[in-house]
Description:
37% strand; 2 domains; binds heme C; alpha+beta; Porin; Cytochrome Bc1 Complex, Chain D, domain 2; twelve-stranded antiparallel barrel; single chain; elongated
Amino acid sequence: MPPAQKSHMLAGLACATALALAAANPVGAQPGGDAAPDGRAVFEASCAACHGADGRGNPQPTVGFDVPLPDLTDCDFTSREPKADWARVAAHGGPVRGFSPIMPAFGDALSAEETRLALEHVYGFCEEPERYPRGEFNLPRPMWTAKAYIEDEVVVTVDSATDGSLDTSAALTYEQRFGTRNNWEIKIPWKTMEGTDGPVTGIGDVALAAKRVLVKNLDSGSIVSIVGEIILPVGNPERGLGKGYTVAEPFLAWGQILPADFFLHTQAGAEIPLVADHNQELLWRAALGRSFTVGDYGRVYSPMVGVHGTYELEDDATPSWAVAPQLHVTLNQRQHIMLVAGAKIPVTDFDPAGVEGRLTLLWDWYDGGFLDGW
Ligand code: HEC
């Protein structure tokens, strides 16, 4: 028998045994007569054959399949996925989130309460859960408003003007978490525009940023972070590709989980040119959205509307406003590849030529390769 087939057969046996054990030992009716279900007992009867009693995953020769088992004691891992998502995986099996079918569906063998208790036992493997922001705060990402949640993400953005000109700008952003509540990021833009002697193309001003979560409280649904960004004059100012001076952009970002799958992102800060003859600017942005899930665990559509304000610190200045309708969609079953499409429409001094279209592709690389989980 080819090894792959053998490992699938063994895995099938392991699943069948786990499900049979789960069905045969309804945990509410343990010997001793105590009717209260106990998360440890459910976990040990239904999950430990594969995940190990200590949550680290039994070795490959014991389980008989080679799909690596996650380390459930790793807080960095167990803090990231919303609890509702893991409850779906336990009830309906690995494939509902693009994982291996070796992770069985316990929907008929365990009650929703038993699954919840088993997962609470899983969360208990992490010794310092309060140090990590929970994955519930990983709300759909708006395109112009910053998120308070920290990410391991690759973001590709394409901006295009709607005035019929050639002007487009693409940017690649890489974000990486470090410690328990920080991430750093780098954004590299690439611009194409109409110059006086034909099209001009080249690298724009490169931004470096660091983010730290200051406060997070799942009971109130709030997360607040501080971000320091510095935009370096890498683009050639003579060719119109960059500003020619460094800009610092400190801001606060606040994310709020709202009832009925609504959510709000807000951001407030300043743009501070590090040269004498340019004005500083205050900026504030908000994006309100709601998520709609197709079926129980299908694609998630999150329409959002952004409101942006800027105020240049000079005499007689008045704030400028823009609105930004946008749609965020999860593309694959694992939901770690997403697309956002939208536009930024100036409200102050409205001009159709000032409308900016944007498309963003997001890849949460921590959750798997680009081709995984479709
Ligand atoms: C037959 C073996 C087996 C049993 C029994 C089993 N699992 Fe799993 N589980 C797996 C495998 C294999 C994976 C990894 C799948 C992958 O990465 O594609 C997994 C992954 C998971 C994940 C991680 C999903 C993620 O986001 O990476 C959770 C949560 C989980 N299992 C919970 C449970 C719970 C709770 C039980 C008991 C009610 C259980 N499992 C029983 C094999 C099993």
